[in-house]
């Protein structure tokens, strides 16, 4: 020990103390005593140790600043448990099997006539994906319902893109209920508040469109596309669940990068007046397997990527301005990497580690929307082997 108390309450110094440590003797202040101890410790450190400390501390701080989000996502399994598993309903389909047989295979009866179907979406700027969606669903939709705002979810002004390009969608015009809503433009507000505000407005637009009890209502984002045979099955079969989620194949950037089969937010509802509310979260435990496609960030132009990155509810993922660099985005797309340099959003270490790194390339274009394949030249950027994008 450097010092010890005498019976009289004074300090006793060891004979082995150096000059600095010797100064501890006679100190009446605990503060002075503590400072002297620190001086003793610091004197014992050589130059190499100083250099190491001054290099290590800033490096650690910078590493946490740059990769803090990755660290947080990787440690997610420590504080967040996986959600309750869905009740998976097997999906039976073949074009040569009768509807009566298909309904029976699912444990459902067959109706005398099909239900009416309403497809309702909030629209931002996804013109190509909207076209593919509406062409896929067109044979079985009673009314297409689209709501567009002059504000992004983040409160920034945006043009009415659909309104400006409405001539491209004349094929749905007789069956289209289109509405606009003014943004509130509140700076600093949580983007999910504006998103919820627009979804409530979509409820009102559905009433204008004429939806009634037991009609089918598709609730999904524009890029969450149910397959047409899925919707035809649900409109013809009796006794289907009142709320049924759809498990979609999850793609990134194009149908070349199949992430997994775990997209679940899309849902189909048997409408109930006063009870059904348009939402984009889990509303049931029932889910129908292999029911369509989710193609996230499947844009033709690089400018559309940057617009969405700044406009949608997760804009906080753009942590650095260089994330919006066009050359970087093009490189990320062709590699199948993450635009925001994030780790997978999973609940177990096994799933996180298994999905780390770029999404593997897929060369299958089987069972994709028919309109996409019929117009492959126009939409080649969505097909395997065509990762290069237009600047826009």
Automatic annotation (TrEMBL):
The keyword Flavoprotein does not apply. InterPro entries: Glyco_trans_17. It comes from the Eukaryota. The chain crosses the membrane at residues 47-66. GO terms for cellular component: membrane. Keywords: Membrane, Transmembrane, Transmembrane helix. One of its GO terms (molecular function) is beta-1,4-mannosylglycoprotein 4-beta-N-acetylglucosaminyltransferase activity. This is Beta-1,4-mannosyl-glycoprotein 4-beta-N-acetylglucosaminyltransferase. The keyword Transmembrane helix applies. One of its GO terms (biological process) is N-acetylglucosamine metabolic process.
